[in-house]
Amino acid sequence: MAIFTSQTPMLKKEEVKRNWYVIDAKGKVLGRLASLIAQRLRGKHRPDFTPHVDAGDFVVVINAEHVKLTGKKLDQKLYWRHSGYMGGLKLTPAKKMAQTKPEEIIRLAVKRMLPKNRLGRKMLKKLKIYRGAEHPHQSQNPKPLDLD
Question: CATH code at 107?
Answer without folding.
Answer: 3.90.1180.10
